[in-house]
Amino acid sequence: MWSFAGDNKKLSRAEMLGEMGKLAGGHTHLSSGFGSADALPTDTYRALLDETVFVPAPGGWSNLETFRVYEALEAGCIPIVEKRPSFDYFTTLLGAHPMPTVESWAQAVGLVNQMQQSGKIEHVRIVCMDWWSDHKSKLIDSVTGFVTRALG
pLDDT tens for residues 96-106? Predict the structure, then answer.
C-alpha cells in the first residue's frame, strides 16, 4: 500500500514512519543516507515503486522538496506531500495539483484510510498521473519557448 526508502534523520521523517506504520501493507527500507552502500539499488527501488500505491514524501534537510516526489509521480504512485501551516510549498512551486497534502503525518493516515474506504484510490492515482503528464508537457513548452525567444 505504501513504501519509504531512505534515511529517517531529516525533519519529520521519524514522525512519518511512526504514523504511516499504523497502516497495513507498508514497506520501509532504512539506509544511512542518499547513495550510501545500504541504500537500495536503482532497479530495486524502481521495482518497489512499481508495487507501491502511496509514497509519503517528507521534506529534506532544507526544504520540503525531494527527489522522492518526482520519483513517485514518474512511477505512477500517489505522493503524499507536506505543507507548513503558513506555506504550501508544492502549490507555490507547481500550481494547483492533486497530490494529497498534509500538515501532519497523522492526517496522511486518515487520508489513506478514507480513500480506501471510499474506493477512490485508483481515481486519485489516475488524476495524479494525468496531471503530472500534463505538467511536464507544459514545462517543456515553456522552456522551449523561453530558449527560442532567447536565441531568436
Answer: 999 999 999 99
Q: What is the pLDDT of residue 10?
A: 79
Please name which of 38, 35, 46 lies closest in space to residue 3, comparing C-alpha atoms.
Answer: 46
Mean pLDDT of 55-69: 87
Q: How many CA within 13 A on the CB side of residue 41?
A: 2
pLDDT band at 64 (very low <50, low <70, confident <90, very high): confident
Q: How far apart are CA 30 and CA 39, in angstroms?
A: 8
Q: What is the CATH number of the domain that holds 52?
A: 3.40.50
Q: How many independent structural domains does the chain possess?
A: 1
132 vs 34: CA distance, rounded Å: 25
Q: Any long-range contacts for 115-121 (C-beta under 8 Å, 24+ apart)?
A: 121/53, 121/78
Q: How many CB atoms lie within 10 A of CB 113?
A: 12
> If you search the block for the grid coordinates 515553456, which residue do you land on?
142
- Residue 81 sits in which domain range? 2-151
User: How far is Cα 46 from Cα 52, in angstroms, rounded to an integer?
Assistant: 10
Put simply, whether the predicted model's pTM sits higher than 0.85 gets the answer yes
